[in-house]
């Protein structure tokens, strides 16, 4: 199939812009599972009487994180090969939600670990699937701008769902987050069904410049998946950077939620954690739009350095005060760091793998490193908090973020072609 330089084939296809917007909005709360609400539920509702504290919650989060990270590369392979990506998104949404809403009726450490592991494995599909659908619909030239828009609607969805959770938790308690997720899943599936699979160029969606013929012709020859990963040095460096970012970032909000649960009680902690999420997500919306519109002009490296800088500052500022509203305000800085990371993560990988046909498996492999950092972050922070207190935990995460800043500055090249 002949393609234009922008990666689109010659057919006149209408990109379902509004459908992508709404899908990212509704999937926002589904794709991350219970997130920080899991820690609040286990500590405040189940509590020490059932064997739950910061350390045991951290171990469960680590187990689920390990399962999720082991699923990342297979998820990328699945998306590269899949011919109906919207259907995979719908199935994954169902699995995440069923695993999460079962938590109030399951008991025991083992069952909680199993349900969250299933949710983590299914959740590994969302990032490569959404990126692949987007790339297959708009092509490489418009990808950065469209990813920024995806992230903006994703963050807006997170803000709205967190706001609803915070308001409803005052009347119904922490369990309300389970039913809210179920409602959003139904909406996500309804919207995903509106994307016409035939509008997605599956060759472009996996990073090829052309469609290989049945014999795998030389013009579209693809390197082996492992060769593409191992021999791409900048991609391996970026994997290490993604690991460092999430080792520093993943446990921050969870730790804040646990601190709030101890200082203000479970019901207010749920609402204040929701406020933390809303504050960050509201900042992420304009950040994602600005990054998406200006990545081609500014380049990826200087923007990513800003993300690491704000992440390090955020970790240090958490130690200044335990006042609930101070913690909410500091959490708003996550909107800059994580907002930039989310908008640039698929863009950097698409730049580094363009023409290889291994975009999604590369996303999965780098996301594995990212997930490893996130999984270890929960155990690291939880253990330090139990042994030395919350300030020591937050400062440790800040130092890791500063290390990531130096690594990106020294080792990571610019990915945008000038």
What does this protein look like?
The structure is a single chain. With 418 residues, this protein is mostly helical. It contains 17 helices and no strands. Helix 4 packs antiparallel against helix 8 (176-192), helix 11 runs antiparallel to helix 15 (334-353) and helix 12 packs across helix 15 (334-353). The longest helix has 33 residues, at 266-298. 58% of the residues are buried.
Succession of helices and strands: HHHHHHHHHHHHHHHHH
Helix content: over 70%
> Main beta sheet: strand number and arrangement?
none
Distance between the termini: 28 Å
Uncertain residue segments: 1-12, 214-218
Name the overall outline: globular
Query: Whole-number average pLDDT?
Result: 80
- The DSSP helix count reads 17
Give the class from helix and strand content and strand pairing: mainly alpha
> What is the percentage of strand-forming residues?
under 5%
Tell me how many strands there are: 0
Radius of gyration, in angstroms, nearest whole number: 21 Å
Describe the structure in brief:
The chain is mostly helical and 418 residues long.
Notable traits:
418 residues, 76% helix, disordered N terminus, mainly alpha
Task: Outline the secondary-structure elements.
Layout: H1 17-31, H2 36-46, H3 54-81, H4 85-101, H5 109-123, H6 126-138, H7 143-172, H8 176-192, H9 202-205, H10 225-230, H11 233-264, H12 266-298, H13 300-317, H14 324-331, H15 334-353, H16 359-388, H17 390-411
Helix pairs in contact: 1-7, 1-8, 2-11, 2-12, 3-5, 3-16, 4-5, 4-6, 4-8, 6-16, 7-12, 7-15, 11-12, 11-13, 11-15, 11-16, 11-17, 12-13, 12-14, 12-15, 13-15, 13-17, 16-17
């Amino acid at each position: 199939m002949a393609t234009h330089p922008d990666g689109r084939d010659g057919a006149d296809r209408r990109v379902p812009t509004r459908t992508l917007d709404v899908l990212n909005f509704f999937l926002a709360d589904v794709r991350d599972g219970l997130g920080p609400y899991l820690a609040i539920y286990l500590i405040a509702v189940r509590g020490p009487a059932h064997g739950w504290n910061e350390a045991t919650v951290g171990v469960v989060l680590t187990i689920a994180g390990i399962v999720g990270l082991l699923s990342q590369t297979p998820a990328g392979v699945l998306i590269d090969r899949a011919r109906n990506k919207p259907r995979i998104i719908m199935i994954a949404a169902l699995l995440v939600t069923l695993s999460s809403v079962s938590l109030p009726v399951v008991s025991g450490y083992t069952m909680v670990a199993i349900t969250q592991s299933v949710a983590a494995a299914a959740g590994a599909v969302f990032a490569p699937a959404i990126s692949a659908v987007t790339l297959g619909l708009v092509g490489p030239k418009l990808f950065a701008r469209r990813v920024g828009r995806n992230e903006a609607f994703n963050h807006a969805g997170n803000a709205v769902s967190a706001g609803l959770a915070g308001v409803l938790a005052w009347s119904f308690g922490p369990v309300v987050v389970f039913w809210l997720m179920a409602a959003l899943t139904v909406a996500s599936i309804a919207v995903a069904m509106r994307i016409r699979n035939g509008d997605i160029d599956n060759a472009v969606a996996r990073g090829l410049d052309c469609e290989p013929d049945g014999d795998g012709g030389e013009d579209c020859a693809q390197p082996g998946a492992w060769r593409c990963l191992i021999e791409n040095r900048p991609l391996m460096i970026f994997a290490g950077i993604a690991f460092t970012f999430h080792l520093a970032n993943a446990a921050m909000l969870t730790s804040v939620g646990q601190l709030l649960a101890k200082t203000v009680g479970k019901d207010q902690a749920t609402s204040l954690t929701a406020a933390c999420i809303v504050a960050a997500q509201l900042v992420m919306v304009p950040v994602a739009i600005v990054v998406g519109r200006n990545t081609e002009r500014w380049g990826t490296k200087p923007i990513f350095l800003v993300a690491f800088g704000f992440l390090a500052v955020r970790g240090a500022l958490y130690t200044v005060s335990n006042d609930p509203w101070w913690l909410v305000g500091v959490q708003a800085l996550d909107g800059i760091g994580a907002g930039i990371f989310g908008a640039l993560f698929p863009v950097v990988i698409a730049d580094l793998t363009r023409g290889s046909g291994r975009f999604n498996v590369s996303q999965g492999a780098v996301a594995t490193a990212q997930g490893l950092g996130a999984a270890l972050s929960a155990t690291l922070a939880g253990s330090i908090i139990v042994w030395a207190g919350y300030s020591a935990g937050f400062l440790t995460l800040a130092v890791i973020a500063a290390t990531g800043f130096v690594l990106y500055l020294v080792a990571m090249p610019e990915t945008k072609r000038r």
